[in-house]
Structure formats: C-alpha cells, structure tokens
C-alpha cells in the first residue's frame, strides 16, 4: 500500500505508455521478441568470444564488456516495462526504484566510454601496428574497463547519496521505468542543482567519448590514405566498419535525444526514444560484429562444427 505521507512513500506506480489495450498488446509482443533476440544474440556472442582463445584480443574484451553491460541494462528495465503492458500502473518498491535508476545511470555512461576505448584500440591497431601488442595488452584493457565503471560511478555519486533522502510528494512515475527526470518531478524540493549536475555529467560523458572517437578516426583516416594500394586501404579500413556503424547508431540516437525540446507534451516521444536507446544497439551488436567480422564468423563456424558452443 502506498502512503500519502510525503516522507513515507514505500512504492511507486509506473504509468508506462499512453494508448489503448490493442496498442499495448502490439508493443508487448514486438518488444518481447526484441528482448529475446537481445538476450540470445548477445549471450551467444559473449560465449563465443570467451570460449575461443583466438578472440581474446583487446577489441573483443571491450566488445564483451559492452554487450554484457547493454544486456544487463535491458534485463533491468525491459521486464518491468513489459509487465506494465499487462498490468497497468505496475508497482515497484522505493528501494527497487532507486536501485534501478542508479544502476541505469551508472551503466549507461559506461557504454559510451567503451565505444571510446574501442576507437582508441582501432587507432592503435591501424596507426601503430608494430607497437599494438605492447600498447593494448589484456591487462591494460581490463584496467580501462574498470576505469570506465569508476568514472560512471563518480558522475552519479552526488545524486546517489542525495536523492534517497529527499521528501517525495507524489508516487506516480510517468514513465516505464524509474527514469531520472521522471523521478525528479516527484520531489517536494527544488532539484535544479541535481538537474544541472545531470546535464553536466551527460555532456561530459557523451561529448568526451565522441571527441575521443572523432580524433581517433582522424588519425586512422590519415594513416589509411598514406597506404598506396587500394586493396590495402580497403582491408585496413574494413576493420573499423563494425565499430563505426555502432558509433553512428548509439551517438546518433543519444545526441538526438539530448537536443530535442524537453517539454511535457513530448513525454511519449521521450519514452519511445529511450526505448530506442536501450534496445536498438544491443539488438544490432551481434549482427554488426558477426556479419562483418571474419574472425567471429570463423569462430562460430568452428563452434557449430564441434558442437561446443555451450
């Protein structure tokens, strides 16, 4: 039971999407299928990379970290979202709501940082091929992955210790999960400082990762253009196509979401965009890195032949 006392709210009600039962049923079926593909595709790719020692390379360490993080985010958000289509105003405990919110905002920035690390890896492989094994060691890669999570945690540290103590005036969250902006609207106090810090940290992570990626590819393109052979240029740059594809999708969706007008009457568009941000990249990841990567295709083929996938 939800208390009306502003300091003793124990549960939140997630409003979900607007629309009637037919639309909700269609969305339920479509998003459930997408969720199943995300789980199956990313789990399959992670297992293939872990089991095949030929893929124990820096690029694939970052890819496993990215796939695992994106899949975990989906497992944290999508089941509750799907339940709302069946049971309107699905309830979530206060502790569960804040845990979902903070986990989402710790893990999501890490995905952008992983893409930035992958661009640095491509830069080292293309521009410094002889020094690549000594620059991008597995130990350095694992330390970089840990650093991404630490940076993401530091960005959310102040809200993490502040938000749970703020008084709450309403228990209805106008979203399909405990999204930060929707939670901010429930507090009885001014949250302008928290909103400002949220914007600053988002810009820092998003633009920082994007700038790293752009600078890396400026050097990569410069190095590729110095190759005399057209075949050599094509072969060298083909190693970056999969990463460039995911960078375009992830950063494109995020930048559009950040630059669009934030108004109450755009709330349903915002929800749709967040669904896209959460589900599109992990859905496409296995296909992009499998169909355009000969090493992964060879590993899958060998695993199927030997019946040793799991």
From TrEMBL:
Transmembrane region(s): 22-48, 60-82, 102-120, 140-161, 199-225, 237-256, 272-291
Keyword Cell division: no
Cellular compartment(s): Cell membrane
UniProt main location, coarse: membrane
Pfam families referenced in this protein's UniProt entry, alphabetically: 7tm_4
GO cellular component, one term: plasma membrane
Residue ranges occupied by any G-protein coupled receptors family 1 profile domain in the UniProt entry: 41-289
Domain of life of the native organism: Eukaryota
Membrane-topology descriptor: Multi-pass membrane protein
UniProtKB keywords: Cell membrane, G-protein coupled receptor, Membrane, Olfaction, Receptor, Sensory transduction, Transducer, Transmembrane, Transmembrane helix
Record bears the keyword Cell membrane: yes
GO molecular function: G protein-coupled receptor activity; olfactory receptor activity
Family assignment from sequence similarity: Belongs to the G-protein coupled receptor 1 family.
Designated name of the protein: Olfactory receptor
Organism of provenance: Xenopus laevis
């Amino acid at each position: 039971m939800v208390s009306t006392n502003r300091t003793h709210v124990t549960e939140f009600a997630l409003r979900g999407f607007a629309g009637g039962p037919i639309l909700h049923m269609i969305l339920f079926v479509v998003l459930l299928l997408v969720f199943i593909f995300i789980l199956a595709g990313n789990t399959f790719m992670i297992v293939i990379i872990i089991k095949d020692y030929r893929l124990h390379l820096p690029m694939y360490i970052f890819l496993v970290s990215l796939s695992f993080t994106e899949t975990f985010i989906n497992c944290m958000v999508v089941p509750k979202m799907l339940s709302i289509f069946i049971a309107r105003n699905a309830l979530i405990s206060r502790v569960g709501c804040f845990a979902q919110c903070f986990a989402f905002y710790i893990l999501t920035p890490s995905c952008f940082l992983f893409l930035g690390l992958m661009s640095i890896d491509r830069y080292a492989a293309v521009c410094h091929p002889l020094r690549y094994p000594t620059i991008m060691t597995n130990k350095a890669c694992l330390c970089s992955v840990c650093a991404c999570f630490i940076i993401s945690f530091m960005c959310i540290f102040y809200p993490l210790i502040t938000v749970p103590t703020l008084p709450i005036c309403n228990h209805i969250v106008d979203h399909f999960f405990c999204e930060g902006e929707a939670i901010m609207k429930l507090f009885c106090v001014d949250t302008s400082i928290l909103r400002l810090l949220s914007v600053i940290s988002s810009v820092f992570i998003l633009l920082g990762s994007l700038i790293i990626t752009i600078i890396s590819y400026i050097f990569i393109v410069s190095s590729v253009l110095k190759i005399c052979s057209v075949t050599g240029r094509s072969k060298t740059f083909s190693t970056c196509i999969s990463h460039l594809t995911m960078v375009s999708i992830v950063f494109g969706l995020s930048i559009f979401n950040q630059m669009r007008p934030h108004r109450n009457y755009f709330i349903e568009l915002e929800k749709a965009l967040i669904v896209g941000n959460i589900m599109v990249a992990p859905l496409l990841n296995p296909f992009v890195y499998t169909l355009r990567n000969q090493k992964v295709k060879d590993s899958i083929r060998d695993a199927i032949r030997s019946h040793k996938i799991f």
